[in-house]
Amino acid sequence: MLAAQRQELILEQVRRDGGVRVTELVEAFAVSDMTIRRDLDALEHRGELRKVHGGAVAPEGARTEEPGFEAKSTRQSAEKHAIARAVTELVEPHSAVGLSAGTTTALVAEYLRETPGLTVITNSIHVAEVFYRSERTDQTVALTGGFRTPSDALVGPLALASVRGINLDTLVLGVHGMHERAGFTTPNLTESETNRALVESARTLVVAADHTKWETVGISTIAPLDRCDVLVTDDRLTPGAREALQDRVGRLVIADVTRETP
């Protein structure tokens, strides 16, 4: 197993259980104590966890911590590409589509550049830039106003005023976490308010979230799981998570990560 794969599994356990012990990880991965400690050092350096005596725990303030767009864009790249391709198949040409901020939705925008006749509403600077670079003349793109967050979302009264009164065929929503009880969440209270307004404006809600988002909880809930019409995730989601989500969302789409990624 590659170090990056092992570290991702360690991080998933930290998110799920709140912490890990070195001795348990050594046994689980059949590697040396030193190897696990190097993994924990690397994850702590990235701000993903905090080392403690004998193991590691989730970083303090994890429910409100909001990594920047560039930091998040390097995580789960293959999964996000697979999810973005699958989401694109759910968006009809000549429809009104909303795209929230996020690294996964920015990739969705890349794939949607070839979909004719779209009217796009977004509070994401990156999403808007993707469409602005397109040579298509049959797409209309509107970027809301607002204050900029660390994830490059536009939020606040101006963003809310831009979204309210809009009627979308489909909203593609990126989220910080998803949980059985907490639903779809974000670490930013103001962004949550804008995202809720986007959700209210949409006939169909499509949530794009890779497997690491499961059982991650941000401070503010955007929507409960059963509000989601289609959840698009990747095939590294655990069987237990798939079962839990299938019972709660309208439709669960599992994207194949093994397909070649551009």
What can be said about the biggest beta sheet?
7 strands, parallel
The largest sheet has its strands arranged as 6-5-4-9-12-14-15
Radius of gyration: 19 Å
Distance between the termini: 24 Å
Based on secondary structure, the structural category is alpha/beta
Task: Please tell me what the overall shape is.
Answer: elongated
**Number of H- or I-type helical stretches:** 10
Commentary on this structure:
The protein has 262 residues and is α/β, with parallel strands linked by helices. It contains ten helices and 15 strands. The chain has helices at residues 3-17, 22-29, 33-45, 69-73, 77-88, 103-112, 125-132, 157-163, 189-201, 239-246, and strands at 19-21, 50-52, 55-57, 96-99, 119-122, 140-143, 147-148, 154-155, 168-174, 177-179, 183-186, 202-208, 220-223, 230-234, 252-255. The strands form four sheets. Strands 6-5-4-9-12-14-15 form a seven-stranded parallel β-sheet, with helices on both faces. It has a three-stranded antiparallel β-sheet with strand order 1-3-2. Strands 10-11-13 form a three-stranded antiparallel β-sheet. Strand 4, helix 6 and strand 5 (119-122) form a beta-alpha-beta unit. Helix 1 packs across helix 3 (33-45), helix 2 crosses helix 3 (33-45) and helix 6 (103-112) runs parallel beside helix 7. The protein is elongated and about 60 Å long. It starts with a helix and ends in a 7-residue tail after the last strand. The model has no long low-confidence stretch (mean pLDDT 88).
